[in-house]
Amino acid sequence: MKSGKFHTFSAPLATLLALTAVLAGCGDAGDGPEPAAQGDAPVSVPSPDETVEATTPAADTAAKAAAPDSCDLLTIAEIKKLTGLAVSIRTDTPDRCIWIVEKPTDSHYGGLTIGVEGYATAEKAEEAFKWYVDEPVPGIGDEASIKNDDPASLAIRVGAAKITITEQNPAITREILFELGRSAARNAA
């Protein structure tokens, strides 16, 4: 190897070397303390006044199953009626639905996205929703809030679900976003 040059490794070789270094530290060298017996380990027991909550994959799955499907919250006809825009494409993913909306007369297009997050209970959704409150909007769902960022985003809590509607088309005004939110909240209930 020439002086001043770095030695390069292929990705598989570098991964193997890193894994070897990690595993070398995991062996039993016999020079460390013996592991504590099961009876010696300290145990933390909550007091009777404490509430202990644990989430499990089953509880998370149940919360998501109870949440409405994002693509069922607005129909293409509702979007067309409320926005005056044509809907050209709809894409759905596990937690959101995206529509491409455009004004046929000026070929300006953008998106409309609806995301849904399910919670185990309405109380948990209400607690989580506090983090999304920017500017409260009365009269939509159980509670709603708008963020006036670019793009604007309307968050709505309906029972144990948080629905987020985000516009990416300048033709969708605040008032139109509110109407889309009212319709989505009705359809989620």
TrEMBL record:
What's the protein called, per UniProt?
A: DUF3558 domain-containing protein
Entry keyword set: Signal
Locate the region Disordered: 30-52
- The positions making up the signal sequence are 1-24
